[in-house]
Specification:
Radius of gyration: 18 Å
Number of strands: 8
Strand order of the largest sheet: 1-4-3-2
Helix content: 25-40%
Number of helices: 5
Distance between the termini: 51 Å
CATH architecture of the largest domain: Roll
CATH topology of the largest domain: 2,3-Dihydroxybiphenyl 1,2-Dioxygenase, domain 1
Oligomer: single chain
Number of domains: 2
């Protein structure tokens, strides 16, 4: 069944490369179909890959090879909830090591400019805690991080000094 709501992500000719990377990096992700242009279009030729149907962690997406006109921005990101430091490190490193760039507070961009929040569940639990002091300490610790370090977040929640 085709999803009623699908994310359409704009690429500059490399939607298939991006979809293949997501499929090998994230669980429950796959390239489902590749569609070629039936004729020439402003940013491509007949036969070029026009769209790629894929999923990212179960979310249906279409990669559209629309050209260089539009760029991704931080206004849209995938937020990935991780269960431990090993998963956090694996996903973060996969994005960065594949031409991506680190940002702050668990955010990074892949080589296509798409933003990702690699967010340990521990962090979300900490900054949304009903213990306001612990939440504030965890949030302050996060604000000083690039990739999230779970041990540091847990120490902040306990009130341990760094």
């Amino acid at each position: 069944m085709v999803s009623k709501n699908t994310l359409c992500l704009w690429y500059n000719g490399d939607a298939l490369e991006a979809a293949a990377f997501y499929a090998k990096t994230f669980v429950d992700s796959e390239v489902k179909a590749v569609h070629h242009a039936p004729s020439d279009y402003p940013s491509g030729k007949e036969g070029d890959v026009l769209t790629v149907e894929f999923t990212v962690m179960g979310i249906p997406c279409i990669g559209l090879n629309g050209g260089a006109e539009f760029k991704h921005s931080e206004a849209f990101s995938f937020q990935v909830a991780t269960d431990d430091q090993a998963e956090t490190d694996r996903l973060w490193d996969a994005i960065i090591d594949n031409g991506g760039e680190a940002s702050v507070c668990g955010w990074c961009k892949d080589k296509w400019g798409l933003s990702w929040q690699i967010t340990p569940r521990v962090l979300t639990k900490a900054y949304t805690s009903t213990d306001k002091a612990a939440a504030k300490r965890a949030f302050a610790a996060m604000m000083n991080m690039t990739k999230i370090d779970i041990a540091t977040i847990e120490a902040a929640v306990r009130g341990d000094s760094a």
